[in-house]
């Protein structure tokens, strides 16, 4: 029961990096990122880059895709030698950051990384802390709860990730909605849907805690 359970059949993983920015420096950090982050993106694939609007403050989240751990090592070594990246972005923004946190996560095996149907809208980042045991324990009922929300049609699933490094038994789910009000209306309808209620009730047996953030993509983010 302590096995982590299945994951995708390749070595691809995602690094989730979360930075807390000094409150007085958030605007400057975003401006610097939009201006210079292409230098970082030249080295590896950026999935998305967002700033928190609700549920957290002065926080940014970005997700990177790697083929394997050797790929990440090679990228980090190249970044250390990239004078443009080091001089134009990294050195100036380090004093703006209060705290950094990173995790390594895999897509759950039943999820492909999605894209929104159009640009604009907002992203909801939901973090679930599950009981120990990994997807082998809670995977199927969690999938059923996610599918029940998808079937309501009010929201678009972008990705479901479970951690490999960082706090284990953590699941991050990214949703896209047209607007915060559209999301709120959809949630109210979902709470009245017996299928959603039943699926969620089954899933929460394995849930320790949950946190939601409403995110706005930066201009430099591939997911907008």
TrEMBL record:
InterPro entries: Dimeric_a/b-barrel, NIPSNAP, NipSnap_domain
Pfam families in the cross-refs: NIPSNAP (PF07978)
One Gene Ontology CC term in the entry: mitochondrion
All copies of domain NIPSNAP, residue ranges: 14-112, 123-222
GO biological process: mitophagy
Family per similarity comment: Belongs to the NipSnap family.
Protein name listed in UniProt: Protein NipSnap 3A
Protein species of origin: Colius striatus
């Amino acid at each position: 029961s302590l096995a982590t359970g299945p994951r995708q059949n390749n070595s691809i993983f995602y690094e989730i990096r979360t930075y807390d920015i000094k409150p007085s420096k958030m605007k400057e950090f975003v401006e610097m990122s939009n201006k210079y982050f292409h230098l970082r993106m030249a080295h590896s694939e950026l999935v998305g880059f967002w700033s928190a609007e609700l549920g957290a403050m002065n926080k940014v989240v970005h997700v990177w895709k790697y083929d394997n751990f050797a790929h990440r090592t090679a990228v980090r070594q190249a970044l250390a030698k990239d004078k443009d990246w080091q001089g134009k972005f990294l050195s100036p923004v380090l004093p703006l950051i209060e705290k950094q946190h990173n995790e390594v996560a895999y897509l759950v095996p039943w999820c492909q990384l999605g894209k929104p149907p159009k640009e604009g809208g907002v992203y909801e980042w939901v973090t679930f802390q599950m009981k120990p045991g990994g997807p082998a324990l809670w995977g199927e009922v969690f999938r059923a709860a996610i599918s029940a929300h998808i079937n309501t049609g009010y929201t678009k699933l972008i990705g479901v990730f479970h951690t490999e490094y960082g706090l284990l038994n953590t699941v991050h789910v990214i949703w896209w909605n047209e607007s915060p009000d559209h999301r709120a209306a959809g949630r109210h309808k979902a709470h009245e849907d017996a299928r959603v209620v039943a699926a969620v009730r089954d899933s929460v047996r394995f849930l320790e805690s949950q946190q939601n953030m409403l995110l706005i993509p930066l201009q430099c983010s591939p997911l907008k």
